[in-house]
Amino acid sequence: MENRELWERLNMDLEKHDEFLAPLPQVFTELFLNRKNRPAAMGYFDFVVGDVHGIRVHELYAMKEAGAKVFSTFCVYVPEEIVVATGSASIGLCAGAQFTVSSGEKLLPRNLCPLIKSTMGFKLDRICPYFQVSDWVIGETTCDGKKKAWEILNEYIPTYVMDLPQKKDAKDAHLWEEEVREFASFIERETKVELSTKNLALGIQKINNKRQALKRLADLRKHNPAPIHGLDVLLINQLAFFDDPVRFAAKVNDLCDELDLRVKEGIGVAPADAPRILVTGTPQPLPAWKLHALIEQTGAVVVGEETCTGERYFKDMTEPADNVTDMLANIAKRPLKVNCACFTPNQGRLEDINSMAKNLKADAVIDFSLQFCQPYGVESYFVGREMEKGNIPFLRLESDFSSEDEGQLLTRIEALIEMVRA
Ligand code: SF4
Ligand code: SF4
Fold first, then answer.
1. Alpha-carbon span 403 to 389, nearest angstrom
2. Any ligand 1 atom below 6 A from CB of 145
């Protein structure tokens, strides 16, 4: 089946979809393909972007024809292991495009985080085949904006909401474990597949392997000169939410093998004295590439992301167990180690940032908040104070998915880089 026929079957707005995708080849060529010295193994990820609304959507459609379901998520707390165990697909939807924000604003307040507006806009505009192929959206009660937006989204696509606690005490952990068990029953009902020791162990293993591969890649970035551009790694982290987990892990490991050789031979994408930047803050979902592109345009290199399109997604693994009850308990434990600003207090995040800055030998930290994101915007105060204590140069930035403020952002980033170089 051709892509267009598939998109028609998925009830997409083809005209609007063409308009949305039209600039992508040029933007991708300028930002990614034209860069010098990229690892050859990036070819796979470039290929995936080249047909971003094709091959993988065909696979998901075929899975559905064979009786499986597609569940879409927006947060790293949703346990994808459980979905994958039943033979269904768990995908993270992209919500990093300015194109759909104005449609989202038809239903949502303008002064709301662009990630939420972009998400809503993708569904209203019917231009995302991943949204269209999904049977369910799995939301969570992380921030107030998302929590309330799910109620509206539910009028367009069935939306299941997981109740995430706001603290990490024993009673909160207990509540979350119950929530994970209820989610597991919901997935069993929907997919008509019972969770067993065998299939759940396999689900855990597949997702752990994907996380291990991403962690291996992240670890290679501590070398100097940096063996890979931060922008390329951001792209890989973004694609981690879409691709088949087994194939994806294999391709990331192939890339890491190539980077191992680069490290041995001292080959890098930037000179050894290029300023090394750690980015922290809100996630940058596909296709939000602006921040990394601007930072690297100055000659600096991004060496890590303390974000959910980075370290927070893959830093912890799910412990194995020998029965379904204990496996679900372990699945519930892993996300509670993730230090999202939606939790209070969130001292663990400051420790994560400090340890990443040290391991990656970062010269400066840029804390990025999407506009109107209250949890990360407010928590930035503590991040700045912590960096000051450690004498780590620090810059706080706030932006959206548009290109309007690129000049302003670049000026501020250049000032930071000059200071680091001085
Ligand atoms: S930043 Fe928080 S709410 Fe957003 S994806 Fe990460 S864990 Fe979920
Ligand atoms: S970036 Fe902030 S406001 Fe936006 S969805 Fe995530 S936590 Fe909520």
1. 33
2. no
Among all bound ligands, the one having the nearest atom to the CA of 336 is 1
Closest CA to 297 of 400, 411, 404: 411
In residues, how long is the chain? 422
DSSP letter assigned to residue 318: P
CB of 340 shorter than 6 A to ligand 1: yes
CA 306 to chain centre: 11
- What is the distance between the alpha carbons of residues 36 and 418, in angstroms, rounded to a whole number? 23
Asked whether 196 and 324 are in contact (CB, 8 A), the reply is yes
Rounded-to-integer distance, Cα 80 and Cα 83, Å: 5
DSSP state of 272: T
Q: Which atom of ligand 1 is nearest to the CA of 342?
A: 2
Q: Is the dihedral of CA 11, 16, 18, 20 positive or negative?
A: negative
Instruction: Indicate the SS3 state at residue 306.
Output: strand
Measure the CA–CA gap between 361 and 341, rounded to whole angstroms.
24
Per-residue pLDDT of the chain (422 residues; tens, 9 = 90+): 899 999 999 999 999 999 999 999 999 999 999 999 999 999 999 999 999 999 999 999 999 999 999 999 999 999 999 999 999 999 998 789 999 999 999 999 999 999 999 999 999 999 999 999 999 999 999 999 999 999 999 999 999 999 999 999 999 999 999 999 999 999 999 999 999 999 999 999 999 999 999 999 999 999 999 999 999 999 999 999 999 999 999 999 999 999 999 999 999 999 999 999 999 999 999 999 999 999 999 999 999 999 999 999 999 999 999 999 999 999 999 999 999 999 999 999 999 999 999 999 999 999 999 999 999 999 999 999 999 999 999 999 999 999 999 999 999 999 999 999 99
Q: Is the minimum distance from the CB of 115 to ligand 1 under 6 angstroms?
A: no
Here the tokens at position 102 are: 């104005």
Measured in Å, residue 307 CA sits from the centre of ligand 1 at 8
The pTM of this model reads: 0.97
Task: Using DSSP, state whether 367 is helix, strand or coil.
Answer: strand
Output the residue whose Cα is nearest ligand 1's atom 2. Answer: 340
Give, rounded to a whole angstrom, the gap between the first and last alpha carbons of the chain: 58
- Atom 8 of ligand 2, residue of closest alpha carbon: 143
